[in-house]
Amino acid sequence: MPHRKNTMLVAVTLGMAVIASGQRVRSSGTPRSTPVKARQTLKKMTPQQKFVLDTVKFAVALPEPDPQDRLRVLSSAANVVSPIDRKMAKELWREGVRMESELIQLGKTPAVSLMSGGQADCASAQSFVENLPVSSVVAAEQALIGAVTTCPKQTLEIVSRRLSAALEKKIVAPRALMATAEAMGMKSPWSQTHFEKLFSSLPEAEASTGEAQNFAAMYARMAAEVDKRTAARTGLELLEWLGKLEYSPLRTLSVNIASGAMKQALGEVGFQDALQGNVTAASLVRNIQNSGGQGRVERPPVESVSVLSAMKNNGTDQSERLRELAASERAREAAAHGFAAGTSGEKQQAAKYFDMAFAAVDEVWESRTPEQNIAAVVEEVSEAAAQIDSVDALARAQQLRYPSAEAIAMLAVARVVSSRGIMEQK
User: Fold this and answer.
1) Contact 159, 180 (CB under 8 A)
2) Tell me: the pLDDT tens digits for 170-215?
3) Contact 389, 424 (CB under 8 A)
4) Which residues in the chain show pLDDT less than 70?
5) DSSP assignment, residue 210?
6) Do the Cβ atoms of 232 and 262 come closer than 8 Å?
7) Rounded Cα–Cα distance for residues 281 and 249 (Å)
8) Are 335 and 358 contacting, i.e. CB atoms less than 8 angstroms apart?
9) 333 three-class SS
10) What's the pTM?
11) Roughly how many angstroms between the first and final C-alpha of the chain, as a whole number?
12) CA gap 211, 196 in Å, rounded
């Protein structure tokens, strides 16, 4: 492993030197019989673009025993190379979609969804939905939304069948149903029928608390598109279901959304008449109104790192404070301070901060889960380092403990080189 890393570092550093000096060199190993079209393509490619291609090829060639890690690398590599070589990007996206499909079929949640971002070509999207088990429509909900949004011609009919079969088993993916209804047309027979089926097939409340707001949003979108009798019946079914949930701000918000949409669809008199026929729903709405509850969903705190703040504290060693932070926050803050010190010409201090940042990256990667966007931490740290000294950043990336983190860090450096050229700290 060390020999492989050293070989790559020498080769890439040489390539960086060529970029920095503006020289155009021809490898002695390139056959003179290179096809004309290939030679023309090479001539059009800048040294920075050639460096990006070489880095992407190296990164995706690294061994990735964990399919989740492989998926992360493919997503990052495809995004980096897409502006330069669309064909290569499509090949990487295609492999990523196939891997995403395999993970979902195994009952796992993919760490990254290429399908949800609309990056898959339509043939891959069609294959994805054709091979999707009905039992997995909830896990693949965001991917299904991406499929019907970007490739409706190839996927809409298949997705609609999958969702219909899932509803029969009380497996409900409300956001995917909404996206499919939008694509079908809200007045279409499929949309009208499945709107009714949705609220008569609501899953066990205890296991679906997190979906309450999505069910309410689906009702709010469709209530005005169906006849008043259907709007009243489905609204009451939803309110009864919400009444079974434990009290929470999310439940309050969902009740307010549903009752507000119901009142708009039926009118005030029709709304009150509907509630009079259902004691459970009426009691729920009345209790929330009397308590003045508006419902507000508390979001988990988002790590926020300010380079400007780091600049203000520049000149004061922050190492002791940074050591007390959680690994992901330490990685980001240390990188911000490294950037601030580097732009101020404090080379040794910048190196100290980047040592801390990349060490924290190893900690973050070791405790990764599919639910966390760990790649973003690696990219943020690597890009900050690359903007100060690309060659040093590449060397640091190649010393990361895990091949997948190494690959993503190298790709982040390549992204900086592609847009800014070589940055070397003097």
Assistant:
1) yes
2) 898 999 999 999 999 999 999 999 999 999 888 887 666 778 899 9
3) yes
4) 1-43, 206-208, 292-315, 422-426
5) G
6) yes
7) 18
8) no
9) helix
10) 0.75
11) 30
12) 17
